[in-house]
Design goal:
Oligomer: single chain
Number of helices: 12
Radius of gyration: 20 Å
CATH class of the largest domain: Alpha Beta
Structural class: alpha+beta
CATH topology of the largest domain: Aminoglycoside 3'-phosphotransferase, Chain: A, domain 2
Length: 338
């Protein structure tokens, strides 16, 4: 959690948000939260989510853009968690704070259950890729209703402003610029770039009757489709819900089935797949920056400091993070289905 946000949050803010959505306080349960305060509550025998963010991260209009995109995907038949209005009929409730405002939003609770190690198999990998392919295909026809609602571009995320959070002599500042320069050299078109989830990892969807039900569009923004794929691969390959003896074989197995599903719904070119390793490495670098944003690194214990140094070493290295030739694997997958 960003420290400036955490320091301003009070019980009074939560109480006011609960009031504006007419929630029974006895049903409210904290779910924690990484960048926002997230709660579960019950109303009319159904479950909902209350999320409280801050204008340090997102503007009111920015969140309206998220909700509009959610509605668009829902209308396209994708299983996503829809937003619900407050008692005043507002999709976003603004609550004044000492510095800026807190923004409260409520969503329907996603159907289904959390992914478990029993679900972690080829069928899931393929459905995962298929769902992301559907988003990328659908977003090619997306237009915002109000220019003010347009979501941010991927290279405008606050964590990419490395100079704000890192020491001036930190090597990650120049490394990050290099990685951004490389990724932004990709051509932009409706077939390569658009508004998408940008955080489609295994903790942001449930399984309902075997199908994916996606939620948490808080980070949705404009990015290259290959970067969006890279974000998913970073989490799925680096942090699987199951241990694999031969990690390299697991990487290949996941990628083959994921891309097989993806190519059912959307096309992508070999020239784009070339950038997958860079996208994965960039995501790793963002974790390093986020850690500085959320913590006082001058007061870390030895274990945390060693972890941070290792994170920096891997993020700064020119070597691929994962020992897999994505281009070669992609060729094999593409040729097998054409």
């Amino acid at each position: 959690m960003i420290r400036e946000i955490e320091e301003q949050f009070t019980e009074e803010i939560l109480t006011e948000a609960i009031k504006r959505f007419d929630i029974n306080n006895d049903t409210v349960r904290s779910l924690g939260g990484y960048e926002s305060f997230v709660y579960e509550y019950q109303k009319n025998n159904a479950f909902f989510i209350l999320k409280i963010s801050h204008t340090i991260r997102r503007s009111r209009y920015n969140i309206r853009g998220e909700i509009e995109f959610l509605n668009f995907l829902s209308n396209k038949g994708l299983a996503v968690s829809n937003a619900v209005p407050s008692t005043r009929g507002n999709m976003v409730e603004e609550i004044a704070a000492e510095n800026g405002s807190f923004l409260a939003i409520s969503y329907e609770m996603s159907l289904g259950k959390e992914v478990s190690d029993e679900d972690w198999n080829e069928s899931l990998y393929e459905k995962w890729g298929e769902f992301l392919g559907k988003i990328h295909h659908a977003t090619k026809g997306y237009e915002w209703s109000n220019p003010a609602f347009k979501r941010h571009a991927w290279d405008q995320e606050v964590q990419l402003k490395a100079e704000k959070y890192l020491r001036p002599d930190d090597v990650m500042i120049s490394i990050l610029k290099e990685r951004l320069t490389k990724l932004t050299s990709l051509p932009k078109s409706k077939d390569t770039y658009g508004l998408t989830h940008t955080d489609f990892h295994q903790s942001n969807f449930y399984l309902h009757n075997g199908d994916i039900y996606l939620f948490d569009f808080d980070d949705c923004g404009y990015t290259y489709f290959v970067n969006d794929i890279g974000i998913t691969l970073y989490y799925a390959l680096s942090y699987p819900f199951k241990e694999f003896e031969n990690k390299t074989e697991y990487y290949k197995l996941f990628f083959r089935h994921f891309m097989k599903g993806y190519l059912k719904e959307n096309t992508i070119q070999e020239e784009e797949i070339v950038y997958l390793q860079d996208s994965i490495k960039l995501r790793h670098a963002l974790l390093y920056i986020y850690f500085h944003q959320a913590n006082d690194v001058s007061n870390l214990d030895e274990e945390s400091m060693n972890w941070l140094k290792e994170l920096q070493r891997v993020a700064a290295s020119d070597d691929p993070m994962l020992p897999i030739d994505f281009v070669q694997e992609f060729k094999s997958i593409y040729n097998s289905i054409h």
